Amino acid sequence: MSSQDHNEQSNGAGYSGFGPEWRPVKLTSREAQQATAWVEARIDRREMLTRKDRVEDVRDRMWELEKAGEIVVHRIGEQHEPVSGRTLYGWTKRIPTNQLWHHKSCGQCGNIPGYPSSLLWLQNKLGIRYLDETDQTSCTAWNYHGSGIGNIVSLAAVFLRNFHQAYVSAQAEGLPAGYYYPLVHCGTSFGNYKEVRSYLLRSAELRAKVRPILAKLGRLVDGKLLIPEEVVHYSEWLHVMRERIAQHRVIDCSGIRATIHPACHVYKMVPEDVLYDETVMDGNRMAVSTGLMQTLGAQVVDYSTWYDCCGFGFRHIIGEREFTRSFAIDRKLKVAVEEAHADVMIGHDTGCITTLDKSQWIGGAVDKVYPLAVMADCQFAALACGAHPYKLAQLHWHASPFEGLLQKLGIDVEQAKAEFEAYLGKVAAGRSETLYDPKRAITSGPGYVPRRALAGTAT
Amino acid sequence: MATAPLIGDPLSPTPAVAQETLQAVFEDIRSHPLFEHELHGCLNCGICTATCPSAHYYDYSPREIVQLLLTENLEGIHEAMQEKIWACAQCYTCAARCPFHNSPGGLVMIMREVAIKHGMQSAKDVLKPFTRVLMKLITTGNQLAPNMITPDAFADWGPNVAKIKAPLKTLRMAIPVPTLRTMDTAWEVNLKTSIELYTIWEASGVLQQLETIDPNLFDVVSDLMDEKRDEYQEWLEEQQEASSPD
User: Fold this and answer.
1) A271 contacts in B (CB within 8 Å)?
2) Do residues A76 and A96 touch, judged by C-beta distance below 8 A?
3) How does residue A47 score in pLDDT terms, banded at 50, 70 and 90?
4) What is the ipTM of this complex?
């Protein structure tokens, strides 16, 4: 080994073997680069996913099962004003754009409330009819992936229960079943529900196990399981609506350098059901978020670790955050700041936003300070369309330094903060504002008051 | 009757494990309904481990998990279930990369479920910090609540968890989405909804899992949900009385 090679030695950063046999491979950095070059050359391409054997389109089974009388499909109708997109293999996926049932995310609502409020605000701006109600559980998949408590039967039953509620929810307003179509907020819910739907469609045994549970809950349709035609993520709605959203843009975003963090459970779980668009990064990245940011006029900057996860870990964010913050800082924040010189990292999932936003402060303890604003795509879009950064986008729940980004967007941070603090006085006095009539949120059980049709108005 | 031999590394502090136990654990993994969906073949290419976030920081390799299961290495599988399987971050990068459509992350989930079924100490230890979360999830369907994010519990998130200094209740009331004006749950959860979810937990064997891992938590949850069911039943009876002709 030459002295130069010796100097380049990567301090045993690579390992071979497994278990007790693990040992440092002592690759030089040149050798390490060579060893991973094959991977590096492909991970930046959509080919990484498409060069494998093509999987079946599970929707074919869905239509067959409906024809055989075993399931009922919650269809996306003309009333949902669908817009078509293309998925990994070029298949068509119809995205409903109106009459939407918001399936909330426990992490977003508990921790990043500006995430759902920005989405609802954008929908109000575009005159979209929707329902945000209390009769829904989380998908329970954060817990499952973190703890192992749960199983395919419980996950499938929760999926069918929540989507059945979406189907019947409009009846509380005197409207027909199927009026609203579910729009999933959380990335993990989206991935989990797509996975569960495919298992349900493939496994008669699983269908046989969940049917009596749904029957007990009174959540069958004509004695059959209800399956949604598509499982739709809110980021897909943003993507197909991006031109219409951009028409409401009031802030120049052209000076903003944005990095995108694609969420693992959005595009790595059931990858065949993810939107790709040849006009967005040549179709080599999933289209959502990137397409929106580009349409809003921001500069989307690529970076070498775009495909890495955020470090959330599901279990780790709760009980082992040493891993979470180390990975978030070393593999995402550091790269976005030093390599991409980003002003903001945009995400489209609960756990990623939480991790990347909240893991920054602790970096100071080890001289790893990479300040970077972190927010969801819909929050940035709302800001670009004139939403109040605190009152509406609720950025005060974020720990990352978003103030510099706001200044770059021409927003007076101090004034906005003062306005919000003044508003808090009104809130404390019981005079708070809402995005819709709160009476619509309870559709059954205690607190529900039967009423005449509200015609789905989103006021 | 002859006693089955115990399997174990004589140099390892880990207690030897009976062959029947090793076999039973593996059979539970192999007979899991998703096992064949997650495992197809392996060329040991290592692309899964090359892009695995957990492999950066732990003695963990998705390739090892696949190989142990493919070669039916019972001792190795049992050993991996003592710690390694809990390192996986569940990002499914491995599954997206694998040319064989394997899902090491999915296999890890099967192994975690089986670790819980067998009441392995590793599962009990790892899930200790989950007590509050499990309690919240099982009884309300929410994994997280605003009042769980306290500076004490999340000191490493720093002093700016909320950049505006105001009582949590006021900040929650200032959210323009009415269903989010809550403290104990992420959104306001309908009583009927939590009862339905509990019925799912009961019918799908999840409560059995909980009882195996944490009997005390199981008792607390059972009592709480009994109260909720009584409350809901009373409400139903009130509705019935109110709607009866006399």
Assistant:
1) 96
2) yes
3) confident
4) 0.94
